[in-house]
Amino acid sequence: MSLITTTDAAFGNDVLASPTPVLVDFTAAWCAPCRMLAPVLEQIAGDEAARLRVVSIDVDANPVTTRKYQVMSMPTLTLFVEGEVVAQFVGFKPRAAIMRDLEPHLHDWEARASQLRS
């Protein structure tokens, strides 16, 4: 699976209603660290597709969502689980650091999902 692009209008469906956790990349075309992060997020989207969706939203084109989640710097990565913000990270990080920050939340989600299936 690859990185998905969303908009203010589609955010509710693409992110908040997702049955799996969603990592949202608040980004901008003019942001150099954002451009450096894009291939890292593409790789995470592919490798972690079974337990994580990765969605990108352009802050300049989508000011409503950007304001709602109080995004002030780019890149900002926000993890949503069951429609709620559970973590937020600002700035470029390498893949290992991103996964280290996400892992506890993904593990908790997997444990809850497993209990529901039992």
Structure description:
The mean pLDDT is 95. The N and C termini lie far apart (27 Å). The protein has a five-stranded mixed sheet. It is built from four helices and five strands, in the order E-H-E-H-E-H-E-E-H. It is α/β, with parallel strands linked by helices and 118 residues long. The longest helix is centred in the C-terminal third of the chain and has 23 residues, at 95-117. The chain has one domain: Glutaredoxin, CATH 3.40.30.
Write the layout of secondary structure elements.
Blueprint: E1 4-5, H1 11-16, E2 22-27, H2 32-47, E3 53-58, H3 63-68, E4 76-81, E5 84-90, H4 95-117
Parallel strand pairs: 1-3, 2-3
Antiparallel strand pairs: 2-4, 4-5
What is the average of the pLDDT values?
95
The Rg value, from CA coordinates, equals: 14 Å
Overall domain count:
1
CATH H-level homologous superfamily name:
Glutaredoxin
Note the run of SSEs as H and E. Answer: EHEHEHEEH
Report helical residue fraction: 40-55%
Identify low-pLDDT runs. Answer: none
N- and C-termini, Cα separation: 27 Å
Structural class designation: alpha/beta
Q: Number of helical runs?
A: 4
**Could you describe the largest sheet, including whether it forms a barrel?**
5 strands, mixed
Order of strands, widest sheet: 1-3-2-4-5
What percent of residues are in strands? Answer: 15-25%
Q: What is the β-strand count?
A: 5
CATH architecture: 3-Layer(aba) Sandwich
- Overall shape: globular
The CATH class name reads: Alpha Beta
Q: If you consult CATH, what is the topology? A: Glutaredoxin
